[in-house]
């Protein structure tokens, strides 16, 4: 994740944090209204509940997008480390096989051929 994307992501998460605080304020306002001695005002409750639900949906969408973005982040995706290491191991194995074949040839050359 490049620094610009990371800053943007952090800004979106900070906005979500502010919206969560706002949603809690809305919920608290509804609770206060429900506990009102004169009884709750239906229009107040309805408008705040609608705002609460819409805010929750917006928060959920933003968090899903951020989670998806983080899951897609692969810092070593363009790294060829694994391929280089695999090639190095193969090279060492081939060098070992070649030394074994050289030793085998030397051993075979010490004995006279029977044919």
UniProtKB/TrEMBL annotation:
Among the GO biological process terms of this entry, one is: regulation of transcription by RNA polymerase II
Q: Which Gene3D superfamilies match?
A: 1.10.287.3490
Q: Which UniProt keywords apply?
A: Activator, Nucleus, Transcription, Transcription regulation
Where would you say this protein principally sits, based on its record? nucleus
Q: Name one GO cellular component term.
A: mediator complex
Q: Which InterPro entries match?
A: Mediator_Med11
Entry's Gene Ontology molecular function annotations: transcription coregulator activity
Q: Name one Pfam family in it.
A: Med11
Location of this chain's protein in the cell: Nucleus
PANTHER family named among the record's database cross-references: MEDIATOR OF RNA POLYMERASE II TRANSCRIPTION SUBUNIT 11 (PTHR22890)
Q: What does this protein do?
A: Component of the Mediator complex, a coactivator involved in the regulated transcription of nearly all RNA polymerase II-dependent genes. Mediator functions as a bridge to convey information from gene-specific regulatory proteins to the basal RNA polymerase II transcription machinery. Mediator is recruited to promoters by direct interactions with regulatory proteins and serves as a scaffold for the assembly of a functional pre-initiation complex with RNA polymerase II and the general transcription factors.
* Stated family: Belongs to the Mediator complex subunit 11 family.
Query: How is the quaternary structure described?
Result: Component of the Mediator complex.
| Name assigned to this protein | Mediator of RNA polymerase II transcription subunit 11
Organism annotation: Eutrema salsugineum (Saltwater cress)
The encoding gene is MED11
